[in-house]
Structure of YfbU-like protein:
Amino acid sequence: MEFSKKDRLFLKNQYEILSRLDGENSSNYQEKIEILEQGYEVHYEEYFDLEDDFPEESSRLVIDTLDLYSVLKSSYDSLTETNLSERDINFLGFDGNHETEHMVYTKFFVETLGRFTELQSEDRFRGYNSHMPMVSSYYNMVNKWKDELKQKRDLSEDEIKMILSAR
């Protein structure tokens, strides 16, 4: 991680303000101030750890997947008779071991931003960790929904099955 002198000055000023506002943690802030003042780069990662950017394409896949599952849920709920079960249309999440960024972004999008919270209902929500890779499955499902069904929002049972078969 690299900071310009301007970056260091801005951060130093922020930590000086925090040090005055939060006297209980003042010594922690003073350490960061000294690291920034002296330019001790070796400590930047330790004290100022930031995650890499989450690509827009990946964010879009998560949002489109949540949107699709919201449509699957509402369409399923409107069916009077069906051979599908609620389990068939459950949002499975992303693999915590190999798709961690997707899983964490999903949690942020649902819990922090409060979007697609209907996917969390007790009888349908399985959490954010699918325990198996899902990115390619969701990519296929979203593309089928977008390309063949033109993002139709009221799906028949056959259309739901068609989307689910892309998994």
About this structure: The helical segments are 5-21, 26-38, 44-47, 56-78, 100-112, 135-149, 157-164.
